[in-house]
Amino acid sequence: MGRSVEPLVVGRVIGDVLDRFVPSIEFSVHYGTKQVANGCDIKLSAAADKPLIQLLGPPVSSTLYTLVMVDPDMPQVPSEPRLREWLHCIVVDVPEGHDATKGRELVSYMGPQPPAGIHRYILAVFKQEGAILEGGGSELVEGRANFSTRHCCSKPAGASCCCSVFQFTEGTSN
User: Residues 138-148, buried b or exposed e (16+ Cβ, 10 A)?
Assistant: First the structure.
C-alpha cells in the first residue's frame, strides 16, 4: 500500500475523527465524472447526488466493508463543531472488489449542505469481522448529529479503519 496517512494528519482527520491507521485497501470515489482524492475541492452542486465508491480488490473475495461519510465541522467551522460529527451516510456489507451499491444502506446519502465556511467531508472504509444481518446494524446509528465514527467502528461489527479520503466543499450553495 503506497497511500500515506500524512495528509489526514495535517488535515486533522486523524485526531478529530479517526485514530492513526495503516491503510490496507484502496478505493476510488467519483462524483459524476470527477474523481475525488485527499484534499480535493468539489462544488456543492457536484456532490448533491451520492458518489460512486468502488472498493478495489479481487471481486471473488468474501471480505466485507462498512463505508461511513461524515462532516466533522458542523454547524459552522472546524473551530466550533457543536454537532461533530454530522453523519452523511453508512453503507454496510460492501464486498471487496465491488462498488457501494452492492452493500446495504443503513443511513441514506445526504449531500453536503454546510451553512457557512469550508467543511471537511470524510469517507472512511472499515473492514468488517463478518456480515451484518438483515435488519441489524441499527445499534451503530443514533442519529445524524453528534455521530462518532470512532465509536461506531469500535463496535463488534467494525474493525480497524482501512482507508480514508476527504475533500473540502465550499459552504455556499451558489
Answer: eebeeebeebe
Task: Decide if 120 contacts 11 (C-beta within 8 A).
Answer: yes
What are the grid coordinates assigned to 97, written together?
Answer: 472488489
Instruction: Evaluate the CA torsion angle 25, 155, 102, 112 in order and state its sign.
Output: negative
What pLDDT was estimated at residue 173?
Answer: 43
The three cell numbers of residue 146 are 453528534
Contacts of 171 by beta carbon, 8 Å cutoff, 6+ apart:
114, 115, 116, 117, 118, 119
CB of 16 within 8 A of CB of 84?
A: yes
Distance CA 63, CA 1 (A): 17
3-state class of 124 per DSSP? strand
Work out the number of other CB atoms within 10 angstroms of the CB of residue 112: 21
C-alpha cell at 37: 482524492
Chain segment 74-111, per-residue pLDDT in tens: 766 556 666 678 899 999 999 999 999 999 998 999 98
pTM of the model: 0.80
